[in-house]
Amino acid sequence: MRLSDITSADLETVLALNEASVPHVNSIDLDQMRWFASNAFYFRVARVDEKFAGFLIGLGPGLDYGSENYRWFCDHYGDFGYVDRVAVHKSARRLGVASRLYDDFADKLRGDADCMTCEVNIRPPNESSMLYHQTHGFVQVATQETEGGTKKVALLEKKL
Predict the structure, then answer these.
(1) CATH number of the domain within which 43 lies
(2) What distance separates the 2 farthest-apart alpha carbons in the chain?
(3) Most buried one in 15, 87, 122, 139, CB count within 10 A?
(4) For residue range 13-33, what is the model confidence (pLDDT) as tens digits?
(5) Domain limits at 30?
C-alpha cells in the first residue's frame, strides 16, 4: 500500500468514490473537492498495487467551513484534527486501507493536536463505522441532530 498527497489528477477519482459512499459521507461537487485540496490539513489517497483504494480528508481548526459537525468541534476544542471524510473503494475493503490512513493522519497531527475527532451517523445508522471507530480507540463525547433533524450523529474523539 502506498499513500500520497492528493493531486489535481486524483480529484475526479476521489469525487467518484465520495459519491459512491453517500450516505456515509455527504455528497459534494468538484469545486468543493478542490476546496478541500487547497485547505485541508491532510488530504491523502491510498493505492494498493498501484490501483486507487481510498482517501481521507482531515481538517484543522479555524477554517471557514460550514459543516455542523466540524463547527461543533471548533466550538468545543482548541486544537484537534477532524476527519471530515474517509472512503475505501469496495475492491480494497478489509485490506487495512482506512486504518493506514487514520494512522498516517494521527502521525501528522502529533505535536500539533492532542486528539483526532470525527462523527458517525447514528440516524440513519452506520453500525460498521461505529464499530470500527470504537475498536480503534474513539469514544463518544456528544451527539448532535443535523440537517434539520433528519440525521443524528455521534461526535467522537481519540486522544493521541
Answers:
(1) 3.40.630.30
(2) 42
(3) 87
(4) 999 999 999 888 889 999 999
(5) 2-114
